[in-house]
Amino acid sequence: MRIGELADRAGVSTRALRYYEEQLLLSPQRTSGGQRCYPEAAVDRVKLIQELYSAGLGSPLIAALLPAIDRRSMDPELLDRLHHERARIEARTAELQAAGRRLDVLIELATHPDTGSCRASLDPEPNGARRDRTPVGGACNHSSRVRPGSGPSGP
Predict the structure, then answer these.
(1) Rounded to whole angstroms, how far apart are CA atoms 25 and 3?
(2) CB 137 within 8 A of CB 122
């Protein structure tokens, strides 16, 4: 099949397929006229590549993984790389969850004004002990506080 048909069937762009070829993730045959020609199995291969990318893996690791997947055998070094990637993703997930909690504090401050003191941080429970909603560092709840819909261009 030609590149356009593969792109349609696999749900990717032709540009993505060319990129996969550059990264040595996909190897099309060439016609005598130089056009790419892919086997039927390329549809599943492209979908697998997409899944590996969505798992947070980069092209070099995917290029190393594909032969291991094909032979259904993975050497210990490659398995260690996967464990490292998993730990990296877990750490990033924890960072994003902490950022979400800080945004929750800001949203709470914006929607439930408190004319009390300012918080020292946006950590919802600094040192894991505080349970009060005293505002944190720079996030003061005074009458000059910006409220939703207000500000330099607001009412």
Answers:
(1) 15
(2) yes
Cβ atoms 103, 136 nearer than 8 A: no
User: DSSP character for 126?
Assistant: G
pTM recorded for the entire structure: 0.67
CA atoms within 13 A on the CB side of 90: 6
CA gap 11, 17 in Å, rounded: 11
| 88: its two tokens | 């990296």
Is residue 49 scored above 90 in pLDDT? yes
Find the angle CA(9)-CA(37)-CA(68) to the nearest 5 degrees. 75
Q: How many CB atoms lie within 10 A of CB 28?
A: 19
Predicted local distance difference test score (pLDDT) of residue 140: 53
How confident is the model at residue 57, as a pLDDT?
94
For residue 61, what are its two tokens? 């690791």
- 67-95 pLDDT, tens digit per residue, is 999 999 999 999 999 999 999 999 999 99
Q: Which helix H or strand E contains 21, and what residues bound it?
A: helix 14-22
